[in-house]
Specification:
Layout (H helix, E strand, L loop, with lengths): L2 E2 L12 E3 L42 E2 L5 E2 L40 E7 L3 E8 L5 E4 L15 E2 L1 E4 L5 E4 L1 H9 L2 H4 L3 E4 L2 H6 L8 E3 L5 E3 H23 L9 E7 L5 H14 L10 E5 H9 L7 E3 L21 H9 L5 E3 L6 H5 L5 E7 L4 E9 L4 E11 L4 H15 L1 H10 L1 H17 L8 E4 L2 H11 L3 H8 L4 E4 L3 E4 L1 H23 L7 E7 L6 H11 L4 E5 L5 H11 L4 E5 L3 E9 L10 E4 L2 E12 L4 E3 L3 E8 L6 E9 L13 E9 L13 E6 L6 E6 L4 E8 L4
Parallel strand pairs: 5-14, 14-15, 18-24, 20-26, 24-25
Antiparallel strand pairs: 1-27, 2-31, 3-4, 5-6, 6-7, 6-8, 7-17, 9-10, 9-11, 12-13, 16-25, 18-19, 19-20, 21-23, 22-23, 26-30, 27-29, 27-32, 28-29, 31-34, 32-33, 33-36, 34-35, 35-36
Length: about 725
């Protein structure tokens, strides 16, 4: 094994590291350490909850199902190390555990609250650990749109001109819409801002978001305002339902994010939750990050056949009936009636597996396509029986092909008709009227269907018509005639009259991207033999999308849409919070590792990597892989490295983490390899009489929804404060 590079850190004159395994060369900081360090002869017992991996020549081990130490051999064909002199191999897939080895996590929280933070709409749901079959949806919001009958609210945030929180959701949107046009230009209105986190390549704690009026604000503050709003609403509802509920530490929070989000974006949501006061940074386990298609998959496991719409059999119906209060005192005879009811805010799920799942065989495979407002996320899962766990078969994939793509196509149509300069000016000068126009389009977008024969009328706000006449000196009807746009006419009632063909053209680019991505995924060797394709997410309510997916893939697999499809992820996120061990194996989206020094081998290593130190030849910048891209990683598996601080009194150690989208990178300077984060180890001061040599054992977990790191000082058996940061690059 090689030695990690010393990191450059402004507060550290020299951050030196020396790994422990005896076969490894010494680091550049060797001059600070008198002699090579031997392997420690004995090892202190680890905490029974920490699983570890043992490889030849390294101080790593795995705990068996009963806590015993047991070697875990590498299965055939597992990726090897890119250099012979390093004795630590990458993490390898574990064997499937025996069914009795898995037990549902003991609930340490009285209630789980999940927040589905969407691009276009958001909401929350909760379940008490004492009755995990019952999932309670949030209270019905004030306001609402025609044709939209679910229990979420628009992801719209309104701040006062001085940046203070005013309102969220329908309330924010309606208040902003009613403001005087000149006054509205001073208020900060944010919508569809979640997309910024996915599209920003250099996301950091200082990233800013632009309000509709062009003013900017720290993104962390914007997200914290939104999460704080949901926290306050959820806590108040829980207090009304259960006055005896303790205020602190009783709630486990779950926040959903797209599976294709990278680690910085996931950390950003966690930091926003800390800022909002959902949980304390000292209690990170109280907050879980759930992957949206994964949450949907977890919920689909519980469905009965009448709760699924098979697109090959019948047309889909969507929507919920009006709100009914929660009934927390279920009589057993009422539970079945409630389970079948779509009129209640309480949903009952199966205590075991749903009817569809009970028909499936062990090893059956399916795809979950989460089609949301901003992104489309694809996850491939395999069912494991009898324990009912899920195994990811291919790394999450997708892209920015959500429903907002249709909105952008509509905006481009308006630019073509009225001029891009006019639309840009109108949005800046009349922001509230622009929001009104987008609301009008949203209602008609939901009414679009491939079988529709009649035209769709979209109301143009009076301020749009008036502003265009003053700005251009002509009326909108003249502009429409001059544009020569097919299938779009002007109605005498002051509306844009769009033919079904015109609306279909707006959908086509986005839907084509989704179809292509699913088709590409189905060609992968790991994704052969798919039985089902589940369409979930808000965009999955669209008959346009449903029809296109069924036409493209209905012959290859059954295309299924859960009833109340827009709430599928939210319900699944609650189930994930109740038992985070349901997904037993995930795939690493990237290769992760560190830069090390290795013994220089003539003919193998390039000359420009040669470094001579103390009469010895070293190869610099070697990429030592912890985990490879698309590698199976079981929940609880860890990669361990043992390091020795270069100086006896050193109080802090920084390790740079690198990532790559390929698995063939050899050096951290190769194209596509970039520094993506840092691991920081805070070391306590050793007491007098302690030995100068000190082993710090760091353990990294890649099998969870977030990468996690823990560390232990072997000499004292004390936990070392270890953090991993992906936002400070």
């Amino acid at each position: 094994m090689g030695s990690p590079h010393p990191s450059e850190h402004p507060n550290l004159p020299s951050v030196g590291l020396k790994p422990f395994p005896v076969s490894c060369p010494q680091s550049l900081m060797e001059s600070l350490i008198p002699s090579p360090l031997p392997f420690p002869c004995s090892h202190r017992e680890e905490e029974p909850t920490m699983a570890m991996l043992l490889e030849p020549g390294m101080q790593n081990l795995r705990l068996g199902a009963n806590g015993e130490r047991c070697p875990t051999p590498s299965p055939p064909g597992s990726p090897g190390t890119p250099h012979d002199s390093c004795s630590i191999a990458p993490l390898t897939p574990s064997q499937s555990p025996r069914s009795e080895a898995r037990s549902q996590q003991t609930a340490s929280f009285a209630v789980v609250v999940a927040i589905d933070f969407g691009t276009t709409s958001s909401g929350y749901a909760f379940s008490f650990s004492s009755d995990p079959e019952a999932i309670h949806m949030m209270r019905k919001w004030e306001g609402g749109d025609p044709g939209v009958a679910n229990q979420k609210t628009p992801t719209s945030l309104l701040l006062t001109p001085d940046g203070a929180f005013h309102s969220f959701g329908y309330t924010a949107r309606d208040y902003y819409h009613d403001l005087d046009p000149e006054e509205a230009r001073e208020w900060l209105y944010f919508e569809k801002f979640k997309m910024k986190i996915h599209s920003t390549s250099d996301l950091s704690m200082n990233t800013e978001l632009e309000a509709v009026n062009g003013k900017k604000m720290p993104a962390l503050e914007v997200f914290a305002h939104a999460l704080r709003f949901f926290q306050q609403h959820a806590v108040q509802e829980l207090r009304d339902q259960c006055p005896a509920l303790p205020e602190r530490d009783a709630i486990r929070w779950v926040i959903t994010v797209p599976a294709i989000w990278k680690q910085p974006a996931k950390q950003f949501m966690r930091e926003a939750a800390y800022r909002a006061g959902l949980v304390s940074p000292e209690s990170p386990e109280q907050l879980l990050i759930a992957l949206e298609p994964e949450a949907a998959s977890i919920y689909c496991r519980k469905l009965r056949l009448h709760q699924l719409i098979d697109l090959s059999c019948k047309a889909a119906g969507t929507g919920l009936a009006p709100e009914h209060p929660i009934d927390s005192s279920f009589r057993q005879g009422d539970r079945e009636q409630l389970r079948r009811s779509r009129h209640s805010r309480t949903f009952l799920v199966e205590s075991g597996m749903g009817e569809l799942w009970s028909e499936m065989q062990a090893g059956d495979r399916y795809i979950v396509a989460d089609c949301g407002g901003g992104t489309v996320d694809l996850t491939v899962h395999q069912i494991e029986k009898p324990q009912g766990t899920l195994k990811e078969l291919y790394k999450a994939s997708g892209g920015p092909y959500g429903a907002v793509g249709v909105d952008l196509a509509f905006e481009q149509l308006l630019c073509h008709i009225f001029g891009a300069d006019f639309i840009s000016t109108f949005k800046a000068k009349r922001p509230a009227a622009w929001v009104d126009l987008t609301i009008a389009f949203e209602a008609r977008k939901r009414a679009a269907a491939p079988t529709r024969a009649s035209a769709l009328n979209i109301s143009l706000p009076f301020s749009f018509i008036d502003f265009y006449r003053k700005h251009r000196g002509q009326n909108v009807e003249t502009a429409l005639k001059r544009s020569n746009v097919n299938f779009v006419k002007w109605s005498s009632q002051g509306m844009l009259r769009m033919s079904p063909e015109a609306m279909s053209e707006l959908f086509q680019p986005t839907i084509s991207q989704i179809i292509k991505h699913i088709a590409d995924l189905l060609k992968k060797p790991e994704v052969q033999g798919i039985k089902f394709l589940f369409l979930v997410g808000g965009f999955a309510e669209s008959p346009m999308l449903q029809g296109a997916v069924q036409a493209a893939f209905g012959a290859a697999c059954r295309v299924l849409v859960p009833q109340d499809v827009g709430l599928t992820i939210l319900k699944g996120a609650v189930l994930f919070g109740l038992d985070p061990t349901i997904v037993r194996v995930r795939r690493s989206p990237l290769s992760y590792g560190v830069g090390v020094l290795n013994k220089f081998v003539e003919g193998k290593h390039p000359r420009e990597k040669l470094l001579v130190k103390g009469g010895r030849a070293w190869c610099t910048d070697v990429f030592e892989r912890f985990v490879a891209v698309d590698q199976s990683v079981a929940l609880g598996e860890v990669v361990q490295r043992s390091y020795c601080p270069a100086r006896p009194g050193q109080r802090r150690t920084i390790i740079n983490v690198y990532c790559s989208a390929s698995d063939d990178a050899l050096y951290i300077t190769d194209p596509g390899v970039r520094k993506c984060g840092t691991v920081s180890l805070e070391l306590d001061e050793l007491g007098r009489g302690a030995g100068a040599r000190r082993e710090i054992r760091a353990s990294m977990q890649f099998g969870d929804t977030e990468i996690k790191v823990t560390a232990m000082d072997i000499s004292t058996a004390k936990t070392v404060r270890a953090t991993i940061d992906f936002l400070s690059n």
